[in-house]
Amino acid sequence: MKYFFVYVLFLNTLLFAQPNEKTDSTAYYSSLSNSYVQDNDYKNALLNTQKAILYSEKNKNIKDQAYQNFYLGKLYIDLRKYNDAVESLLKSSELYANLDPSSDQAHMYYHLGLSFMATANFDRAILYFNKAKSIYTTLNIPDTAELFTLQTGLIYKSKNKLDLALSVFKTIIAKPDSPDLSNTKAEALYQTGRIEAFKSRNNLALNYLNKALDLNSKTENLEQKSNILLALSTVYEKMLDKNNAYLYLKQHLNLKERISILNNKRLGIDDYTNFKESERLKEIVQTNNENIEQAKASKFSKLISILAVALVSILSLLSLSLYKNNIIRNQSNLLLKEKNKELEIAKEKAEKASKARSEFLSTVSHELRTPLNAINGITHLLLEEKPKKTQMDYLSSLKFSGDYLTKFINEILEINKIESHNAEIEYTSFNLKQLLTDIQNSLKELALINNNNFTLKIDHAIPDYLIGDPTKLSQIVMNLINNALKFTKNGDVKVLAKLGNLVDKNATLYFEITDTGIGIPPDKLVSVFDSFSQGSTEVNRKYGGTGLGLTIVKKLITILGGHIKLTSTVGLGSTFSFELAFKTSEKTLLVEKTSKIDYDSKLLNKKILLVEDNRINQMIIMKMLLNKQIICEVIDNGEDAIELVRKNKFDLVLMDVHLPGINGTIATELIRTFDTTTPIIALTAISLDENREMLLSFGMNDVITKPFIPEEFYTVIAGYI
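Predicted structure:
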């Protein structure tokens, strides 16, 4: 019946065609080729496509040549002849380069990317996928984004970036089922199962592979089904389930044989060999024609050559006079290039060393936060349980050590943040006199510990309101005063702020912090600003500290446009001074003082979902929530968290950012597609690559940083209940 319909269609075409329409044309052979593809007759489809290419070349129709070579490439892809497909599609690409961008050109680039994917040339695949995306975007062609999502995941997997690949695949898996997405979603499930099997998470792998097999049953993708069956057999074999391993292997082999029979039916080996031979003969004929044309052109070129020789002779005489000058100039340029190259190499080495150091410190400090959160959390829980008097000293020491480590890690991250140029200057109106008075009041207790006389002198000529960065100025002043009070006993610490000059609302202020402490040796006056450096080993052992405070001070002052000066005498004390420029302001921004939240009553009997994969953190946070009589449910992965929020009502979700499988940010983004009201608070040992704004952009309401202070933890939660 199918062949009868094609025959009738062919007769109708002949009967109703225009009198001047040629049946022996590009369009005619292209139509025949399409019909043969529908009948699974690839032998005749290839032959008619070749004829269509010949006629388009004969008529010098670039657009037809480009499309027919594209169509030939698609036939090769159907036949799994990917190298031949690449050759035809590259010819099409060269031809399309002479035409305006079109949807056919975009489709051609996409298929060229698929062919390079099949031949494991992933860099070139990315290149052509990007070209296809660019044209789709330029022409506003809808519903094309899904074409590239799966390929992106496959490329990540090929480059062994398995976590990134999982993230992409699971984004596809999370989408609702639809007939158009079945094949893509089944492939994403299959690839996810392969990765989970590679990571020896066999039960999880079986789950994904079985889902892939179920979804594949709705499609006609036999190659995909064969791959899924083989993967299932492999996983069962790893689990020592020989029966299932054999069962799925047998199904795979039977299906593989069936696919082979179908492929042979499409095009026999002899048919393909004959077609390639005919293509080779066509190229020989074309080459001979080109040689004839070249022979004609060579006669004309001989005359041109004679004239050229005469012209070259004249130019050679002129060039000879410039030759010596060029040699001298080239030698000079060569020396300059060598020197520039040496400088560039030295610069690259320095940048790589700085980057490696920054990444190392960031990674170490980031990884320390999780166990440190456990230490601080367990200490807090033990202190809440009314320990014995003999245990209080140990717990207090443990709390002190935890707080010290937290401060140390924060200082490392602060330095890395400054050195990686992530520190931005804030410009806001503030009252300098009030700022310095508040700092003095906060440090009075520290002054009393060492019996120091702590005084603050502020020049009355300083304008009441300035525009600048009060946060960074507070860090600078507090670090310098802390140092002065720590290294001084039974002495004086003085803070001075005075106006240097005031011109057209531009004020320059002078700051000075003086102490009568132990002083700094002359040979340490420069190195004391280096990271982890103090006056001496004895000083470090006696007074403690990280040796990072002055490093942060110097870097912050430099960012604000100033320069720090230091004078010191051993045994008599030290003086740190610096100048900073500010704009003056008529008034300061009013900051509303928020009253302390009574979180005990607000948190009573509230229902909170905790999404956290670390068992210790689960135990600590759950205990802290239960202490406030909160109803707490715990989940250790993003996938289950999404389903739980979909089916249940929670007052708040605590979401760890780094989770196995779907991470916290993607889980939050997916939850926000169906729930925009439930507060979601991020839990993270925040690093240089993360920031508050980035996490909030995924739909999170706030961020709690590990290790966290219990008071702040309860306050943030209560604020969103």
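Summary: The two ends are 69 Å apart (CA to CA).
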